Amino acid sequence: MVLYVEMEPALKERLNLLAKRRFRKISGEATLAIEKHYEKELGMDVWTCGRIDLRPGVGVKGQYRVVVIDLEKRAAMQDGRGKGTRPDTKSPPKGQIVVTWTEAGGVVIVGHGETADPQRWRWSQPSAVWEEGGCPPAAVLDALFTALA
Prior knowledge:
Blueprint: E1 4-5, H1 9-22, E2 30-31, H2 32-49, E3 63-70, E4 75-83, E5 96-102, E6 106-111, E7 119-124, E8 129-132, H3 138-147
Antiparallel strand pairs: 1-2, 3-4, 3-5, 5-6, 6-7, 7-8
């Protein structure tokens, strides 16, 4: 038995963003399994944008990359790399997101998505799952993919 659900507009927008990136068309209803599959692919795309080697278990001695992205301009404002303990990600001003990749396989996105309050999304590449905040909204992902293309 297959369970069909009506997609929320925000999820449909994220899936269509992925479809555009992968040259596929998505329309109508989708199963929960398909939704999870595309959210996983979006997370893997976010990981790939960081262009950092995956070294699970490296701990705090690993390398990291931090990028500040303007959501409206969809451009990187700052881009830096370091080694050791990554800096604490503070909440950026409205209209910006801060994305941090670590060699251990984590991606943290902090910024203002669809709410006035700052939000936080965390992807684990080794687990291939959004561990915190679920999949970010399409506006955040589109800005990230465009800025780091």
